[in-house]
Amino acid sequence: MVETNVGGRDRIVRALLAAVLTVVAVRTLKGGKRKTGALALVGALGFGFNATTCFCGLNETLGIDTSEE
């Protein structure tokens, strides 16, 4: 079984942040601000990955486990 360390409210917040950053990325890319849009897109992908897989490398490094909430 794959180890998980993201769950509960933490997972919901990460999913919401992914959605918000996706909107920001699309709007800024359409507005011609490529660096800001790309940075927002990378953040959205990261938070989306964390929410989908229930795993965060930074949480693992820091010893944080929110999957038991």
From TrEMBL:
<keyword id="KW-1133">Transmembrane helix</keyword>
<feature type="domain" description="Inner membrane protein YgaP-like transmembrane">
    <location>
        <begin position="3"/>
        <end position="68"/>
    </location>
</feature>
<feature type="transmembrane region" description="Helical">
    <location>
        <begin position="12"/>
        <end position="29"/>
    </location>
</feature>
<dbReference type="Pfam" id="PF11127">
    <property type="entry name" value="YgaP-like_TM"/>
</dbReference>
<keyword id="KW-0472">Membrane</keyword>
<keyword id="KW-0812">Transmembrane</keyword>
<dbReference type="InterPro" id="IPR021309">
    <property type="entry name" value="YgaP-like_TM"/>
</dbReference>
<protein>
    <submittedName>
        <fullName>DUF2892 domain-containing protein</fullName>
    </submittedName>
</protein>
